[in-house]
């Protein structure tokens, strides 16, 4: 229990604290206005500050160890992928070159049927290499194997999509001959 005298003292102290808070708010407001005026005179505005903050943050990110490691890993993965695609391209060229040299003037369409070609040792070897390369790339670049289907499934779906996107005509007839 407080006496009347103590209550009066606390009420007076409360009024004084409220007055001081009001005064401090006014002083703070005046200082903030002065700050804005100085920034305007210096040509600084919110957009410039945001740009500076962003630039500093981006610099901090680029100099971080995590960023450097990630950049290095992705760069290395990109180099590996480029090399793998180059090897696949070379293998394809070599295999088609081998097929051309065996055809003796006939096109693939005339010399060998698509099902027979797909069952040939050359095609099986090529298929295995592509599957190995794709699996390796998925593992190195994407982490776990996400299962994109077998080479046959991808080949069939690509041939099907090509046939559907074609508007007809002689090219469509060729694609129909090549489909399995």
UniProtKB/TrEMBL annotation:
Polar residues bias locations: 155-165
Signal peptide positions on this chain: none
Coiled coil segments of this chain: 7-34
A GO-annotated cellular component: cytoplasm
Record flagged with keyword Protease: no
Pfam families: TPD52
One GO term (biological process): positive regulation of apoptotic signaling pathway
Region annotation Disordered: where it falls in the sequence: 140-180
Domain of life where this protein originates: Eukaryota
Keywords per UniProt: Coiled coil
PANTHER family tied to this protein: TUMOR PROTEIN D52 (PTHR19307), TUMOR PROTEIN D53 (PTHR19307:SF8)
Family: Belongs to the TPD52 family.
Protein name, UniProt field: Tumor protein D53 isoform X4
Organism: Acinonyx jubatus (Cheetah)
Upper classification of the organism: Eukaryota, Metazoa, Chordata, Craniata, Vertebrata
